Amino acid sequence: MRTLVVFIVCGLFYGQQARAQLPLNIEALQVQRGELSIDTGVSFSGYSRWQLQQQWLDTENNAIDAIADYPVPYRGDSLLSTLVVRWGLAPSLEVNAGIRRSWHSAGLPAANAMWQRSNALRLGVNYSLQQRGIIPGLVMNLAWEKPLKSSARPGAVGQGSWHLSNTLWYPLDPVVLSLELNYRPHLHIDHDAIRLKTGGGLSVSPRINFAVNHRVTLIGGLGLERDGGDYRNGRLVIRPRNRIRLLSGAGFRLSSRSQLFVYGSFSSGEENTGSISVNWRFHF
Q1: Which domain covers residue 225, as residue numbers?
Q2: Within 10 Å of residue 171's Cβ, how many Cβ atoms?
Q3: How many domains does the chain have?
Q4: CATH number of the domain that 56 lies in?
Q5: Mean pLDDT, residues 2-17
Q6: 3-class DSSP state for residue 216?
Q7: What is the separation of C-alpha 54 from the centre of its chain, rounded to a whole number of angstroms?
Q8: What is the pLDDT of residues 32-80, one digit of tens each?
Q9: How far is CA 276 from the centre of its chain?
């Protein structure tokens, strides 16, 4: 009987602690007026898919004409690093600016892949609404990204593109449920007589976030993703793709001013991918 009473008391105490503590990844979404923070991260991912390649034939007039498209195996890897500076203008409004540098392997067939570098400038604004009663919390992010110099296409001119991301979260003791919605339009790149249209997509990702204590958070979820396909001079070269992504991760409070997040994911479908990422945030 005494053991049962101790167990119930400890359970009630732990439940109060769980209700009082937001997971670190949800806490990181909150905007603090006048707060300056830096986010930096690195991620590595690999993917495999089938890509259409044109078969060329010399005609009688010595002209070159494409007579067929046929799928070939394509495997690529990418390494991405980011640096973002954030500033809280108001209790619910944040502006941020950052730079993204990425390295991609590219080549057809997969055995002929080469590493190519690209850079991009990113400007964004976050607006947050606190969770009240049965109304979930909401963080909206609108970002504009401008491609910069690329070793793959040195003379290419890339247009800026908008990215929209929304995160809904709601505490359901002892966890916090969240739902991420992301949309990115196609990116247009002009290079000599070539016009590329690439990168459009939509994703929905429900997650479960659990604060083990004030220093450790566990994260798990899945994502439903749709890529709109890639085009070259109006001709489809990569078909639209659907994926189901499984995600797991953990957050660690290193000090009163810094947090570290580690994520891993795997997806399958018309394109198979796997990735691992590490992000560090420091508050001044």
Answers
A1: 2-283
A2: 17
A3: 1
A4: 2.40.128.130
A5: 41
A6: strand
A7: 31
A8: 888 899 999 999 988 776 665 655 544 555 444 444 556 666 677 889 9
A9: 11
